[in-house]
Amino acid sequence: MTSTERVMAAIQFHQPDRLPRWDDFHAFGDFTSNWRTWKGFSGDVEPADHYGIDISMVMSDEGPFFSQSGVIDKDGEYEISRDSWGRTVRQRPSGAYFMETIETMLPERSDLDRLKFEDAADDRRYQEYLKNVEAERGAGRLAFSKIGGIYCRSQFMRREDLLLVDMATDESFCHALFGRVGEHLTRIALEELRRTDSWETGMWVYDDSANYQAPMFSPAMWEKYLLPLYKC
């Protein structure tokens, strides 16, 4: 079986020749270069090729303020940058994918009305995404398109602790924020699927609404705020 055949069999509840493999080596900072040194490999050897990875995850620059993103300043071994969701974050460039949020776009709930989301169909969002899809398919892997989830991306804009309080105290604001973010992400998702003709595989939606110990909020809140948007 090819990787595509293997994965498609599995998600259609048919038995593949083996379990499809997935890993995200790039989420761990300098892992790939350290791995090459440890294994004694040259600089062109990729872990995904070496271990027979079947699945890759690819995404566009999905944030509503993507043209405003970039590095702002340096702080010793850290970078201060603004991401496409408007967050100002502090992060070690060569480290794993973790960061400290310094500032967000919605310090006050009333700020939501003034925010203008940039066009989801802007070609600049998809330049690297299309290159990555082509490269992964060329390597024989099935490239799954991905978007962030509505809660996760909303707390990028509002800040996690503030948004959790909002969910308990300001229903109208949360419906407005989740609605705008959900509509924007839907447009991004459709653009990704259209531009890569990935309708058959669908899309991964990453919504970090729990930790290792418990959900971030109750199932009742999820059903009230998020389920209607995901069902649309």
Automatic annotation (TrEMBL):
Q: Which SUPFAM superfamilies match?
A: UROD/MetE-like
Task: Note the InterPro entries from the entry.
Answer: UROD/MetE-like_sf (IPR038071)
What protein name applies here? Answer: Uncharacterized protein
The scientific name of the source species is marine sediment metagenome
